[in-house]
Design brief:
Elements: E1 11-15, H1 20-31, E2 39-46, H2 54-69, E3 74-81, H3 84-95, E4 99-103, H4 117-125, E5 130-133, E6 142-146, H5 151-162, E7 170-177, H6 201-229, E8 234-240, H7 243-254, E9 258-262, H8 276-284, E10 288-292
Parallel strand pairs: 1-2, 1-4, 2-3, 4-5, 6-7, 6-9, 7-8, 9-10
Antiparallel strand pairs: 5-10
Helix pairs in contact: 3-4, 5-6, 7-8
């Protein structure tokens, strides 16, 4: 097995709002074997209504800093006044971090979305990779990388290969094939007098499914080979069905602690920046999720 490549120091932006999920994020970061000289900036944004709490907020940040520094992690703190999502994204653009880490917050019952509003905005609109951590945190034992062979998935694959992980973590790469068709309509095939010579529909479906499976197996083989080049041993998993549904079911059945996935971009004019599958995983998977974004540091 190839030796693990030497990893560069990381710049991490930790959004600390004092919540249970933020504390879980701190615990996760403390477990990572971060490369030497890595730096975590712990940021707390408070609104004008919280000005009287300034001293207590700073004390809470100092406590987070002490926890991380006790693990040998270089840490500094920032306490900023403003609107949280806006300030976090603005600060991240200045810092250009390798990763933004946030705790997931609360249930937005009216929308049925298991994610805090600030977290949702940062995940959607920040240019940088985002790790959303859910409590309770019980360690990183099993990680699932979702790949569909897209450039975004390839970016996630390379990022996970370089990412500092605890020893003995179980890494799996997963691809989901499209659902089996319920029926097929061939235009013109039922029109009399048209001499169309086609193989039986069942044969066409079977051939298409076989071709899709070959493509999916090739995607998984490439993912395994790529991870091995980083010194990682992984298992491959191939499923069929609705992508988000099958991934979430697998996560629950296999007790996955972290999903890693790419984010397919849309223009800002279109509103949502994330692909629909990635967005569903962040909202509904029930575990921590790391979404790799397309921004590349010079």
């Amino acid at each position: 097995m190839p030796a693990s490549p030497e990893r560069s120091p990381m710049k991490i932006l930790l959004a600390d709002d004092g919540s249970e999920h933020a504390r879980a994020a701190v615990a996760l970061l403390a477990d990572l074997p971060l490369p030497a000289k890595s730096q975590i900036t712990t940021l707390r944004v408070f609104t004008p209504l919280q000005i009287s709490e300034h001293t207590d907020l700073q004390k809470a940040l100092d406590q987070t800093q002490a926890t991380l520094m006790s693990k040998g992690i270089q840490t500094n703190t920032e306490l900023l006044l403003g609107y949280p999502a806006e300030k976090l994204i603005e600060y991240a653009d200045q810092l250009q971090p390798d990763l933004i880490v946030m705790g997931a917050k609360g249930l937005r019952a009216t929308l049925g979305i298991l994610l805090g509003g600030v977290v949702q905005q940062v995940v959607e609109y920040a240019q940088w990779p985002v790790l959303v951590v859910r409590a309770p945190y019980n360690g990183l034992r099993r990680i699932l990388l979702v790949t569909d062979g897209s450039p975004s998935s390839q970016g996630a694959l390379n990022a996970l290969g370089r990412f500092p992980l605890p020893e003995g973590v179980d890494i799996r790469v997963l691809n989901v094939m499209s659902p089996l068709p319920h029926g097929v309509f061939l235009a013109g095939s039922s029109q009399p007098g048209i001499g169309v010579s086609l193989p039986p529909i069942d044969d066409q479906i079977e051939a298409a499914q076989a071709e899709e499976e070959r493509n999916s197996q090739a995607i998984l083989a490439h993912a395994v080979e790529t991870m091995q080049s980083y010194g990682r041993q992984v298992k491959s998993v191939l499923l069929r069905g609705d992508a988000a549904t099958e991934i979430i079911r697998y996560v629950h059945d296999q007790q996955v602690d972290l999903i890693v996935a790419g984010s397919r971009g849309l223009s800002r004019v279109a509103g949502w920046l994330m692909g629909s599958v990635s967005r569903k995983l962040v909202h509904y998977s029930g575990c921590s999720v790391m979404i790799m974004k397309g921004a590349v540091k010079k």
